[in-house]
UniProtKB/TrEMBL annotation:
Record-level Gene Ontology MF annotations: ATP binding; ATP hydrolysis activity
Family per similarity comment: Belongs to the ABC transporter superfamily. Drug exporter-1 (DrugE1) (TC 3.A.1.105) family.
Source organism (scientific name): Amycolatopsis endophytica
Record protein name field: ABC-2 type transport system ATP-binding protein
Residues in ABC transporter domain copies: 2-237
GO CC terms of this entry: plasma membrane
Keyword entries, A-Z: Antibiotic resistance, ATP-binding, Nucleotide-binding, Transport
Length: 328
């Protein structure tokens, strides 16, 4: 569905060059739900805008939905849907009118646009909202309408730019359900950007991690997490036993990163669930009581930390609006 090679974009802002995307390769197969994860300013939106023909790459090439991005941008546009961040709608228009208008813009007859509008309001749970003015919709309802708009021409590939940014947890969960259903019921391929770790983890089949314009990792959320060297284990022991307990922990197979606290020992092992009983036996045999234990499975944040030395949360940088305003 998507095959990009060496896709790059450099911006020139006030004589300064910003390499927003530094030659990325992207492969997405039909029916996949792929997440593009990275901190603010990593290059996600720029990549998405290139793949959706809104921005011309400085270098590279891509096939998107079977069309050549550079040679046939109009063909690409016909095949894809794009749900932008806060896409523009007419505030004084009713939801159904907005969707029907979109159908008309795609060349549908009035009757076809009406039929399609009905289908989509049903599909996206907008039936009771279809006569509302678009400006009165809540954030989550608005996102559902944006999705309906992007689906009017029945695209097989849909791009979402940060679909749930700014939504409360309940609306986010609701939107995830809609996104999952889109894939299950319509078999569409989905490519979304996000800086939410939980979104990438629970929604996406596969995740591409981008940092500073480069893809630093890719794989299923589980395989990425498996690359982090093991589970994090924290055990509690009385302060006088910390040294001895750390020594025992350090001898477990594959144990590393052993650190000592006042009354805790932390370490990593390939499998926390099998290492803990073994450690418990060793502690018992030395008469050391364990007061607490915790196994922390690696998260995508641990993946990012391992790859870049920074936490994804710490890596969040405020966007340089000033730069964006001065594109040469
Ligand atoms: N029009 C522009 N002119 C100059 N620099 C730009 C422009 N657009 C983006 N950039 C810069 O390119 C880099 C990547 O930006 P991009 O918007 O692609 O990041 P992002 O990962 O989508 O971030 P966010 O999560 O904030 O949307 C940033 O350093 C940004 O400041």
């Amino acid at each position: 569905m998507i095959r990009a090679r060496g896709l790059a974009r450099t911006f020139t802002a006030r004589g300064r060059s910003v390499e927003a995307v530094k030659g990325v390769d992207i492969e997405v197969t039909e029916g996949e739900l792929v997440g593009f994860l990275g901190p603010n300013g990593a290059g996600k939106t720029t990549t998405l805008r290139m793949l959706t023909t809104l921005l011309r790459p400085t270098a590279g090439e891509a096939q998107v939905a079977g069309r050549d991005l550079l040679a046939d941008p109009v063909g690409v546009r016909r095949q894809i849907g794009y749900v932008a961040q806060g896409g523009g709608v007419t505030p004084e228009m009713r939801v159904i009118e907005e969707i029907e208008l979109q159908g008309r813009l795609y060349g549908m007859s009035k009757a076809d646009a009406r039929r399609r509008g009905q289908e989509l309001v049903e599909q996206l749970d907008l039936v009771n909202l279809d006569q509302r003015l678009t400006k009165t919709l809540s954030g989550g309802q608005r996102r559902r309408m944006d999705i309906a708009l992007s689906l009017v021409h029945d695209p097989k590939l849909i791009f979402f730019d940060e679909p749930t940014t700014g939504l409360d947890p309940q609306s986010r969960a609701n939107l995830w359900d809609h996104i999952r259903r889109l894939r299950a019921e319509r078999g569409v391929t989905l490519f979304l950007t996000t800086h939410y770790l939980d979104e990438a983890d629970s929604l996406c089949d596969r995740v591409l991690v981008i940092d500073n314009g480069e893809i630093v990792a890719e794989g299923t959320p589980d395989s990425l997490k498996a690359r982090v060297s093991g589970d994090g284990v924290t055990i509690g022991v009385a302060p006088e036993f910390v040294g001895a307990a750390a020594e025992l922990a350090g001898h477990l197979e594959g144990a590393h990163e052993v650190t000592l606290g006042d009354d805790v020992v932390r370490f990593r092992v390939p499998r926390g669930d099998t290492a803990l009983p073994e450690l418990l036996r060793h502690l018992d045999s030395q008469g050391i009581p364990m007061t607490s234990m915790q196994v922390h499975r690696p998260t995508l944040d641990d993946v990012f930390l391992t790859l870049t030395g920074r936490s994804l949360r710490d890596a969040e940088q405020p966007r340089t609006h000033e730069e964006a305003a001065h594109v040469a």
